[in-house]
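Researcher: We're teaching a course module on how sequence relates to structure. For the next exercise, students receive a sequence and then see the predicted structure as tokens, so they can try to spot secondary structure elements on their own. Here is the exercise chain.
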Amino acid sequence: MALAKIRGDNRRSKSVLFLICCGFAGVFPHLIEPARNLFPAITLAFLLGGYGLSVVLRDRRENYQLKNGEILIDEKHLETLPTVDVLVAARDEENVIERLVDRLLSIEYPQEKISIWIIDDGSQDRTPILLNKLSEKFPSLHIHTRKRFSGGGKSGALNSVLKVVNGEWLFVLDADAQVQTDILYRGITLALKGGWSAIQLRKAVVNCKQNKLASFQAMEMAMDAVIQRGRLSSGGIAELRGNGQLINRKKLDSCGGFNEQTITDDLDLSFRLLLTRGSIGIMWDPPVQEEAVTSISALFRQRQRWAEGGLQRFFDYWPLLLSQGLNNRKKLDLACFFLLQYALPIVSFIDVIISIIIGNMPLYWPLSISAFSVSGLAYWKGCNGISEGPELPSGNIINILGSVIYLSHWFFVIPYVAFKMSIYPKKLVWVKTNHIGI
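Model: And here is the predicted structure for the students to work with:
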């Protein structure tokens, strides 16, 4: 099965099968005699929780990070740097587009080796007007326009400009991105030094002090970077996160470009790179800064999209993941995190429903406690220590407990999304996060 032929067929039936399997797993312990009904959860807590713990403990700040003296900005080094196209897909971004262009034009990189492209994806606000004025003021800024209903979502917008750019690397950002001026020097140096096919910058929350919800998202991004580095150190895989992606153009072309049959181009591309022997590195500093959502409703909409895109890629690519020569360590890593991220919330939800119906205690609490404990440790590691960009919230016990409680929203989002995917046909709609310009 070639990557180009994967179009996301039969996702509804696969969702139904996934729900049935999770339902059986949630009910099964309640059918066992009371003396043994915790055995499945304890076994899984030992296996999955143990693997998660080993991942977090293997994370080291110095891993996949440039050391002092490794960034040489002299004439000889500048001549060897590859060409880079900076790509931003923008739709209705009047609040942030001027600031974005100002930040992009301030990036320190040889002028003849960097090209900045904004893809106006059918904006209906003042974004096109602002972009026209900016392009007149800054001739080095390139604007690529396509109609609003051209299809393919963000992937379609990015693919549309690939026909006219020819850089050796692509730097993909969201419209609310804020970056340091030396970000390309450091990102490209790390990518070339490590032989990576792509680099994902740590995501930092620029408005983390606005409210507790934003603060918890800042901690969540730091936790995610810790886990990703730990997965790499354990022989597993890392994943792209959309904003702050540095991608080798030849490697992107080899896996068919951005997939227009998914709603999360970053997660899908992570698997496509993996299946074409590509590797993704993680860069802690400098981070790419972005806005966190500040309301529960906006968080729920955003996390629905992330959850659906995450499940879509597993449903689409699992035959290839099992058959195309991935080593056992990577298969173990994928299996463990699939079960922890997607299966556990559904199984736990069903376990609680059954417990309420029959009047018993839930039986998967050992596994849930194990997963939350590992997350708490990753929160602590992520929020303590030196980091560039916005100051991270303190990794004290109060913040960690609050962030762990915050993390439980996935135990509602994942079951809801899986149920919705099993009933409704797929809708490939670019549901963007609104940016207000913080």
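Model: If you want an answer key for the exercise: The chain is about 50% helix and 10% strand. The CA atoms of residues 159 and 380 lie 39 Å apart.
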